[in-house]
UniProtKB/TrEMBL annotation:
<keyword id="KW-1133">Transmembrane helix</keyword>
<dbReference type="GO" id="GO:0005886">
    <property type="term" value="C:plasma membrane"/>
</dbReference>
<feature type="transmembrane region" description="Helical">
    <location>
        <begin position="12"/>
        <end position="33"/>
    </location>
</feature>
<keyword id="KW-0464">Manganese</keyword>
<comment type="similarity">
    <text>Belongs to the MntP (TC 9.B.29) family.</text>
</comment>
<protein>
    <recommendedName>
        <fullName>Putative manganese efflux pump MntP</fullName>
    </recommendedName>
</protein>
<dbReference type="Pfam" id="PF02659">
    <property type="entry name" value="Mntp"/>
</dbReference>
<keyword id="KW-0812">Transmembrane</keyword>
<dbReference type="GO" id="GO:0005384">
    <property type="term" value="F:manganese ion transmembrane transporter activity"/>
</dbReference>
<dbReference type="InterPro" id="IPR003810">
    <property type="entry name" value="Mntp/YtaF"/>
</dbReference>
<dbReference type="InterPro" id="IPR022929">
    <property type="entry name" value="Put_MntP"/>
</dbReference>
<keyword id="KW-0406">Ion transport</keyword>
<comment type="function">
    <text>Probably functions as a manganese efflux pump.</text>
</comment>
<keyword id="KW-0813">Transport</keyword>
<feature type="transmembrane region" description="Helical">
    <location>
        <begin position="165"/>
        <end position="185"/>
    </location>
</feature>
<feature type="transmembrane region" description="Helical">
    <location>
        <begin position="45"/>
        <end position="64"/>
    </location>
</feature>
<feature type="transmembrane region" description="Helical">
    <location>
        <begin position="138"/>
        <end position="158"/>
    </location>
</feature>
Length: 186
């Protein structure tokens, strides 16, 4: 396989993962949007989420590179298992109906906690991508962009739709990660 095809395949994989991880920000954004939110707060919250979607996978990728050095050839299977567990947890959480409750997103602490809660999955995926030596700059740019974009979309859409759509969004994102995990294991 030539190098251009490998880069295109890596880009497509990272793009799909970025959208899948953004689904969490989207689904929780719908919940907050339903409560009513000002445009200024949407931009502030989405910017912080985008920043966390850069920082968390970056830390995860560095940790993954370290783990990859320790695990060697077992790294692919370990990364696949990690994605299966993460995807399964996202699906389970959406079915169970877990979400951030009574969080004041307008305070500095509330914004930080909300951004962390929707970005924590990015750290785990970053570990996996670090094991595969994924393109660092491309990964954090895609994750940051889609984390911010999906949160804006969720917050804006939350003003207009029912709460049920949010759970399906997180379940869909979890299913994508779960499928990638199975592919890495096989």
């Amino acid at each position: 396989m030539n190098e251009a095809a490998l880069h295109a395949g890596q880009f497509a994989t990272l793009l799909i993962m970025a959208v899948a991880l953004g689904m969490d920000a989207f689904s929780l954004g719908i919940g907050i949007g339903l409560k009513g939110i000002r445009l200024r707060d949407i931009l502030k919250l989405s910017s912080v989420i985008a920043l966390f979607h850069i920082i968390m996978p970056l830390g995860g990728m560095f940790a993954g590179q370290f783990v990859s050095g320790l695990l060697g050839h077992v790294a692919t299977t370990a990364a696949g298992i990690l994605l299966v567990l993460l995807g399964g947890h996202m699906i389970y959480s959406s079915i169970k109906g877990e979400e951030v409750k009574s969080l004041d997103y307008r305070s500095v602490w509330g914004t930080f906690l909300f951004a962390l809660s929707v970005s924590i999955d990015s750290f785990s995926v970053g570990v996996t991508l670090g094991m595969f030596q994924a393109d660092l700059l491309l990964t954090i740019l895609l994750f940051g962009f889609f984390g911010g974009l999906m949160s804006i979309m969720g917050l804006m859409l939350g003003r207009r739709v029912s709460r049920n759509l949010g759970g399906y969004g997180e379940a869909f994102g979890g299913a994508i990660l779960f499928i990638f995990g199975i592919m890495f294991i096989i």
